[in-house]
Structure of DUF4038 domain-containing protein:
Amino acid sequence: MSLRCILFFLLTGASCCLQAQVNGPIRISDNGRFFTHPDGTPFFWMADTAWELFHRTDIREAEFYLEKRSRQGFNVIKAVALAEIDGLRTPSTNGDLPFVSLESLEFNEPYWKYVDEVMDLAESFGLHIALLPTWGDKLYKDSWGEGPEIFNKDSAFSFGEKLGKRYANRKKPGGLIQELE
Protein backbone atom coordinates (compact mmCIF):
# COMPACT_ATOMS: atom_id res chain seq x y z
CA MET A 1 0.00 0.00 0.00
CA SER A 2 1.42 3.36 -0.98
CA LEU A 3 2.19 6.09 1.51
CA ARG A 4 -0.53 8.23 -0.13
CA CYS A 5 -3.17 5.55 0.54
CA ILE A 6 -2.07 5.18 4.15
CA LEU A 7 -2.21 8.95 4.68
CA PHE A 8 -5.61 9.10 3.01
CA PHE A 9 -7.06 6.42 5.30
CA LEU A 10 -5.51 7.97 8.41
CA LEU A 11 -6.76 11.45 7.58
CA THR A 12 -10.26 10.39 6.57
CA GLY A 13 -10.53 8.14 9.60
CA ALA A 14 -9.52 10.97 11.88
CA SER A 15 -11.89 13.46 10.31
CA CYS A 16 -14.93 11.17 10.46
CA CYS A 17 -14.68 10.97 14.21
CA LEU A 18 -14.86 14.73 14.75
CA GLN A 19 -18.13 16.42 15.54
CA ALA A 20 -19.20 18.99 13.00
CA GLN A 21 -18.73 22.63 13.89
CA VAL A 22 -21.01 25.45 12.80
CA ASN A 23 -19.26 28.77 12.38
CA GLY A 24 -22.26 30.64 11.06
CA PRO A 25 -24.00 30.71 7.71
CA ILE A 26 -22.25 29.38 4.64
CA ARG A 27 -21.16 32.08 2.20
CA ILE A 28 -19.81 32.08 -1.34
CA SER A 29 -16.20 33.19 -1.65
CA ASP A 30 -15.38 36.57 -3.19
CA ASN A 31 -14.27 34.89 -6.42
CA GLY A 32 -17.46 32.76 -6.53
CA ARG A 33 -15.57 29.45 -6.69
CA PHE A 34 -16.05 27.91 -3.24
CA PHE A 35 -17.93 28.15 0.04
CA THR A 36 -16.59 29.89 3.13
CA HIS A 37 -17.44 30.40 6.75
CA PRO A 38 -18.32 34.02 7.66
CA ASP A 39 -14.68 34.59 8.66
CA GLY A 40 -13.56 33.70 5.12
CA THR A 41 -12.04 30.30 5.92
CA PRO A 42 -12.97 27.60 3.39
CA PHE A 43 -16.03 25.47 4.08
CA PHE A 44 -15.82 21.88 2.89
CA TRP A 45 -19.30 20.62 2.00
CA MET A 46 -19.49 17.10 3.49
CA ALA A 47 -23.15 16.21 2.96
CA ASP A 48 -25.43 13.28 3.51
CA THR A 49 -28.78 12.99 1.76
CA ALA A 50 -31.89 12.50 3.87
CA TRP A 51 -34.62 13.58 1.50
CA GLU A 52 -37.45 12.15 3.63
CA LEU A 53 -36.08 13.49 6.95
CA PHE A 54 -39.03 15.75 7.73
CA HIS A 55 -41.75 13.37 6.56
CA ARG A 56 -40.63 9.90 7.62
CA THR A 57 -39.08 10.42 11.06
CA ASP A 58 -40.30 11.23 14.52
CA ILE A 59 -38.15 13.51 16.67
CA ARG A 60 -36.26 10.63 18.33
CA GLU A 61 -35.31 9.14 14.97
CA ALA A 62 -34.31 12.53 13.60
CA GLU A 63 -32.18 13.21 16.67
CA PHE A 64 -30.48 9.81 16.43
CA TYR A 65 -29.72 10.32 12.74
CA LEU A 66 -28.48 13.91 13.07
CA GLU A 67 -26.32 13.19 16.11
CA LYS A 68 -24.75 10.21 14.34
CA ARG A 69 -24.04 12.16 11.16
CA SER A 70 -22.50 14.95 13.21
CA ARG A 71 -20.20 12.48 15.00
CA GLN A 72 -19.24 11.03 11.61
CA GLY A 73 -18.00 14.43 10.45
CA PHE A 74 -20.82 15.47 8.14
CA ASN A 75 -21.62 19.18 8.17
CA VAL A 76 -24.54 19.37 5.72
CA ILE A 77 -27.75 17.34 5.53
CA LYS A 78 -29.74 17.58 2.31
CA ALA A 79 -33.48 17.28 2.92
CA VAL A 80 -36.62 18.20 1.00
CA ALA A 81 -39.53 20.17 2.44
CA LEU A 82 -42.17 18.22 0.45
CA ALA A 83 -41.53 14.49 0.54
CA GLU A 84 -40.95 12.69 -2.73
CA ILE A 85 -42.90 9.51 -2.01
CA ASP A 86 -46.55 10.59 -1.81
CA GLY A 87 -45.77 13.17 0.85
CA LEU A 88 -48.67 15.38 -0.15
CA ARG A 89 -51.35 12.73 0.39
CA THR A 90 -49.82 10.42 3.00
CA PRO A 91 -49.38 12.01 6.43
CA SER A 92 -45.93 12.25 7.96
CA THR A 93 -44.83 9.96 10.78
CA ASN A 94 -46.29 12.60 13.10
CA GLY A 95 -49.67 12.43 11.32
CA ASP A 96 -49.39 15.73 9.46
CA LEU A 97 -49.56 16.84 5.84
CA PRO A 98 -47.60 19.88 4.63
CA PHE A 99 -50.70 21.75 3.42
CA VAL A 100 -54.20 22.23 4.80
CA SER A 101 -55.40 21.46 1.26
CA LEU A 102 -53.70 20.97 -2.10
CA GLU A 103 -56.00 23.59 -3.60
CA SER A 104 -55.11 26.41 -1.20
CA LEU A 105 -51.49 25.36 -0.48
CA GLU A 106 -51.95 26.93 2.95
CA PHE A 107 -49.20 25.72 5.28
CA ASN A 108 -50.35 23.16 7.84
CA GLU A 109 -48.53 24.59 10.89
CA PRO A 110 -47.97 21.31 12.80
CA TYR A 111 -46.04 19.90 9.81
CA TRP A 112 -43.91 23.02 9.42
CA LYS A 113 -43.29 23.33 13.18
CA TYR A 114 -41.78 19.85 13.02
CA VAL A 115 -39.56 20.95 10.11
CA ASP A 116 -38.50 23.92 12.30
CA GLU A 117 -37.80 21.58 15.22
CA VAL A 118 -35.64 19.26 13.11
CA MET A 119 -33.75 22.23 11.67
CA ASP A 120 -33.11 23.51 15.21
CA LEU A 121 -31.92 20.05 16.21
CA ALA A 122 -29.56 19.92 13.23
CA GLU A 123 -28.12 23.28 14.24
CA SER A 124 -27.58 22.02 17.79
CA PHE A 125 -25.41 19.24 16.33
CA GLY A 126 -23.44 21.67 14.16
CA LEU A 127 -25.16 20.68 10.92
CA HIS A 128 -26.37 22.88 8.07
CA ILE A 129 -29.64 21.87 6.40
CA ALA A 130 -29.55 22.20 2.61
CA LEU A 131 -33.28 22.53 2.08
CA LEU A 132 -34.68 21.58 -1.30
CA PRO A 133 -38.18 23.10 -1.42
CA THR A 134 -39.83 20.39 -3.56
CA TRP A 135 -39.36 17.88 -6.35
CA GLY A 136 -39.92 18.82 -9.98
CA ASP A 137 -42.91 16.53 -10.37
CA LYS A 138 -44.95 18.90 -8.22
CA LEU A 139 -44.69 21.31 -11.17
CA TYR A 140 -44.19 19.04 -14.21
CA LYS A 141 -45.14 15.43 -13.49
CA ASP A 142 -44.98 14.48 -17.18
CA SER A 143 -41.21 14.80 -17.10
CA TRP A 144 -40.63 12.73 -13.97
CA GLY A 145 -42.35 11.34 -10.89
CA GLU A 146 -45.95 10.85 -9.91
CA GLY A 147 -46.89 14.33 -8.78
CA PRO A 148 -49.45 15.48 -8.05
CA GLU A 149 -48.85 18.70 -9.95
CA ILE A 150 -49.78 21.36 -7.41
CA PHE A 151 -47.70 24.30 -8.60
CA ASN A 152 -47.84 26.66 -11.50
CA LYS A 153 -45.39 29.53 -11.98
CA ASP A 154 -47.22 31.84 -9.55
CA SER A 155 -47.96 29.30 -6.82
CA ALA A 156 -44.38 27.96 -6.99
CA PHE A 157 -43.11 31.51 -6.53
CA SER A 158 -45.49 32.02 -3.60
CA PHE A 159 -44.36 28.74 -1.98
CA GLY A 160 -40.72 29.73 -2.35
CA GLU A 161 -41.48 33.14 -0.90
CA LYS A 162 -43.21 31.56 2.13
CA LEU A 163 -40.25 29.25 2.74
CA GLY A 164 -37.81 32.13 2.30
CA LYS A 165 -39.65 34.26 4.85
CA ARG A 166 -40.01 31.39 7.29
CA TYR A 167 -36.32 30.53 7.28
CA ALA A 168 -34.71 33.90 6.47
CA ASN A 169 -33.71 34.71 10.05
CA ARG A 170 -32.57 31.32 11.27
CA LYS A 171 -29.53 31.31 13.50
CA LYS A 172 -26.38 29.91 11.98
CA PRO A 173 -27.05 27.27 9.34
CA GLY A 174 -30.77 27.18 8.59
CA GLY A 175 -32.15 28.95 5.59
CA LEU A 176 -32.44 27.71 2.08
CA ILE A 177 -29.35 26.43 0.33
CA GLN A 178 -29.73 25.81 -3.37
CA GLU A 179 -28.92 22.28 -4.50
CA LEU A 180 -25.60 22.52 -6.29
CA GLU A 181 -25.03 19.08 -7.71
User: Anything to note?
Assistant: The mean pLDDT is 83.
